[in-house]
Design a protein that fits this description.
Length: 178
């Protein structure tokens, strides 16, 4: 399975790095491919290192203005002209999406992917990986949106919340019939 992971390119605290390493190892050992932003920095590097070391493949999708940060040892690296094309390529090359901790770029990617899913533009499973409660506030906001009628589909049909990588991968494999 090609698993797109949106996450930070920043160097982060161990409370985020350790679970990311564990998740990456599970992806690699499961024989899956990491589809990611292609960066060889921060949490993106942690994910790529872990997947590759565990035997998985790497499919990076970077963008021209970040091409100097792209991972040299990826199995495949695509360079897009802008962020919109990058997001489209990431989704097109993925069978499933996992949103990990990140900043405004990650939040932008997550909301676009969910908006496309809401409108039936894709049916790929989407998981918000709520490491260390990072997305508790967002989860509450989504629950409020659902309760107050802002979502035309049930929240559970839009996104799955997982507390750890094991739960995220188990959900994705179940959705894929693996």
């Amino acid at each position: 399975m090609n698993i797109c992971v949106f996450c930070s390119a920043a160097d982060l605290d161990d409370r985020y790095v350790t679970p990311a390493r564990e998740f990456a190892e599970r992806i690699g050992k499961g024989g899956h491919t990491l589809v990611w932003g292609g960066s060889d920095t921060g949490l993106m590097k942690v994910m790529a290192d872990g997947v590759q070391e565990a035997g998985g493949k790497l499919l990076g999708v970077s963008v021209e203005f970040l091409a100097d940060k792209a991972r040299a040892g990826a199995d495949e690296m695509v360079i897009t002209k802008d962020l919109a094309e990058r997001k489209a390529q990431l989704l097109a090359r993925a069978d499933a999406v996992v949103v990990m901790v990140g900043g405004t770029g990650t939040l932008d990617e997550a909301t676009e992917i969910l908006e496309l899913r809401k409108h039936g533009m894709h049916s790929k499973p989407v998981v918000l990986l709520n490491t260390a409660g990072f997305y508790d506030g967002l989860k509450s906001q989504f629950e409020r949106m659902a309760a107050e009628g802002f979502l035309p589909v049930p929240l559970a049909d839009l996104v799955h919340f997982a507390e750890d990588g094991a739960g995220a991968l188990a959900y994705l494999e179940q959705q894929a019939g693996i």
